[in-house]
Amino acid sequence: MNCKQFNSIKLEEVLQILGHLPTKQTEKEAWFLNPFAKENHASFKINKNLNYWYLHSEGIGGNNVNFMKKYLNASVKEVLEWAENQNFSSFQQQKTSNSKLENLSKNHKIIEIKNVQHPALLEYLKERNVENQTQFLQEIHYRMNDKNYFGIGFKNDSGGYEIRNKYSKICLGKKDVSTIKSNLNSVRIFEGFFDFLSFKNVENFLEKEPSNYIILNSVSMIHNIKNSLKDYENIELYFDNDEAGNRAVEMIENENKNVEDCRILYSDFKDLNDWLINKNPLNERQLKHRRR
């Protein structure tokens, strides 16, 4: 990865990987607490259109390379080595489509939507231990930059699709959360749809009552649901065991009552799906023992 490629990645995603979430945002800008020092008021601003940052408390700013040089106290070479080891979804999308991230959703055409039946997709779901949850999924065939692709599709509330297969992780259409409602006063919140599917696999074993479900499809979408959470009497959180997950839990706990951080169930694993894959906990006695 070179400087131009790294600077083309959304700085919001860089901050998310580092565990920093915005305190407020609009279509044009996002505000964060100072990533370089502790502060009580957000003074770090990102211009989304330019992908530039500015720290008002110090009067400095720049691009992604400038940010990481200061954040890591490192050279440009060291910054690029760090960036090369990260799994930036926007960089993967650039390599797949050879176009800028902001143009991806505009350059696609959905060719066919059907039940999941392609052997490669079914095998991928089996590897993730959620092959029996296809009722929430669709098989999407689409065309992008004169090439045909297909993947597992999970629809969001704006009609877009989170697309996954063994080699791709993109969103077709507008990025948004996915809500599954049952008109109940409790809600369970997941970062990604594989965690939601994993939960559905063990829901009965965990002896959980029915609820509504919100799948963020990205932890950065947490601000889209802040107002709606006030309608719920009980909120269960199933976020990743990382800094971004910690901050998301803290943000929701600070603004709502009756919030339960359910990550103790899979505290030794990256996320709920990782737990399901590696622990293979589909044994009632084992699960009950875990909950004690």
UniProtKB/TrEMBL annotation:
User: Domain Zinc finger CHC2-type: where?
Assistant: 21-84
Q: What is this protein called?
A: DNA primase
Q: Which species does this protein come from? A: Chryseobacterium carnipullorum
Q: Name the Gene Ontology molecular function terms of this record.
A: DNA binding; DNA-directed RNA polymerase activity; zinc ion binding
The record ties this protein, via InterPro entries, to: DNA_primase_Znf_CHC2, Znf_CHC2
Instruction: Tell me which Gene Ontology terms the entry assigns under biological process.
Output: DNA replication
Stored Pfam families: Toprim_2, Zn_ribbon_DnaG
